[in-house]
Amino acid sequence: MREALEMRPTGWPDPAWALLRVAVLVGVGYYVGARIGLALTFEPMPVAVLWPPNSLLLAALILTPRRWWWAAIAGALPAHLLAELQGGVPLAMVLGWFASNVLEAAIGAAIVLRFSEARGLRTLRSVVAFCCAALLAPFLSSFVDAGLVLAIGWGEAEFATLWQMRFYSNVLAILIFVPVFLAWSAGEPVPLRQGSRGQIAEIAVLVAGLFAVSLAVFDSRLAPGATAPSLLYLPVPFLIWAALRFGPALTSAAYAIVAFLVIWGAAHGRGPFHAAALVYDALPIQLFLASLAVPLLLLAAVVEERREAERRLRASEELFATAFRQGPDAIALSRAADGLVIEANDRWLELLGYPLGTRPDAVAPFRDHLDDASRRRLQAMAAAPQQGADLEVAMRDCFGRQHAVLVAMAHVQVAGEPCSITILRDITQQRQAEKDARDQRRQLTHLTRVASLSDFSSTIAHELNQPLTAILANAQAALRFLQRDPPNVAEIRAILDEIADADKRAGLLIHHLRLLMKKGEEEFVQVDLNPLVRDVLDFIRGEFLLRGVDVKTAYGSDLPQVRGDRVQLQQVVLNLVCNACDAMQGQTQRRVVTLTTAQNAEGGVELTVSDTGPGISANQMERVFEPFYTTKESGLGMGLAICRRIAAAHGGTLSVQSRPGEGATFRFVLPAVVAAASALRPEDGSRRSIAAP
């Protein structure tokens, strides 16, 4: 059937074919429903017990999108004309009836779609909404229908009689046909396709028994009054059986079978409702069938809701059990009062060092695996857990091995007793990997610093040779003065003072060299940036003289201190100054490096290092801080990358600005410890120049 519906003529667009299919199906169903309505009438008077076309149109509107309603209505119109005009009904009356039928279907569909969350009548809310639509839509449209009949002059019945006949007839039709379409089109599993052999046999017995009982009760040829009234409800156990076992789909189909046999028997002069047919009164039949339909639909919906709730509960329990047993984290359920473990998964036992299969009551509370500090932190977390917050603690397993774990905790109620779910994630390897990475970065930073110092070996030797030469010359002069008679004590004292000054100068140079070459843990202290920059410039003063570079400085006054590792900050300054010198190495014009310290608008402290070199091209600007990228023939390409990492580790930034032919400016910004105003010192040698000879 589905393949037939999906087939379309070649070249037809999908929306057009879908609209045509809807119109054709609704038209065919409407016409067949009209013929069924005519067949289920009392003879000799054409009093219809129910009128199916309206209910079929209602089902079509519920099952199709609102934008396609016009196609369903257009398909029903020719079928309505064909069915009604054959009986000699005036055209005006035929069109009036069609208008009232469309109004009824539209009102009912609007109510169902607005208030029902499921079209398959699988929930109590959807059944209540459907029952309201089944009553309210015929109630309103019957006024229009009866009014049109009287206005056109078709029939001699009174308004109340016309309204009553149409109302009950349409209510019964909706209760019989619409649930079948809604339930079987909602995608429910069909028992005959998916059921086991036992279920199929059960369905066969149910249908056969229901059909046999209904034939015996409602199609009986016994004389009127010979059937006991209590036998009318003999099919009810089978209907309840269908509702309890097989849901709305089979329930609606079983009810439709009973309704068809009731009306068929009465229309042909058989069954307990034969007397109603003799007096042309369909109301007893309609009330009997309606009183069966509503409770039956409600029962099927309640059972289906409970069955769905049980399925969700089982799925939730299976999901929790799977997550608890197979999850990658260690999970335990314990009592909140004393921490005794109620249940624990294998990962918990493995992490805490217990053999797999250990009974929960043999597992020590988690707090027993913690030290005092971690235990207090865990108790504080248990007292006031924060949503999504994890606590990192150090714990020891049964073998004494230490683990770093993240702890997450949630409070639950188990059989009315307060309990807690504790989840542990072992991050020991992660923390060890982070430590190894820090050690490698520190090692790389140290090696880069030592490598940069090797470039200054000749300068350092020259700077160290000057005070040593001065010490030797002064010592020799002092010996000569001592050989005189009498010795010149004043000259000797002056010479000894010069020897002490030269020794201090050499010692200070060696001290700076040892600081830059030392290897150890980072030591963050408060640092004044101005003296730090001066120390670096004094250390490599000889390099400026050898390269012919002029150094200009402008130190900001009252700069706030920054917090950082002094050696790493010196490495950044040294690297930036050396890069500036290297950038001007090949040019013959004046070479100038300018260093400026100041406090920026955000309250931070910044150092700018500018040169008068050729600048950095646009394609190099994006890669200048990349590791292993260098423009030097013997460079490693790690200097600026490490400097930016050092800046980030200190909460600062390192950036560069450049225009080709105008040099480059590196901007090193650090957060201040204490905010203070900044200004450039215009006097006291704040601007000084180290000129090349």
Automatic annotation (TrEMBL):
Record-linked CDD domains: HisKA (cd00082)
Transmembrane segments: 12-33, 91-115, 127-155, 167-187, 199-218, 238-266, 278-303
GO molecular function terms noted in the UniProt entry: ATP binding; phosphorelay sensor kinase activity
Domain Histidine kinase positions: 459-674
EC number: 2.7.13.3
Reaction catalyzed: ATP + protein L-histidine = ADP + protein N-phospho-L-histidine
Membrane topology listed for this record: Multi-pass membrane protein
Annotated keywords: ATP-binding, Cell membrane, Kinase, Membrane, Nucleotide-binding, Phosphoprotein, Transferase, Transmembrane, Transmembrane helix, Two-component regulatory system
Superkingdom of the organism of origin: Bacteria
A Pfam short name: MASE1
Entry's localization field: Cell membrane
PANTHER family, per the entry: PEROXIDE STRESS-ACTIVATED HISTIDINE KINASE MAK3 (PTHR43065:SF10), SENSOR HISTIDINE KINASE (PTHR43065)
Protein name: histidine kinase
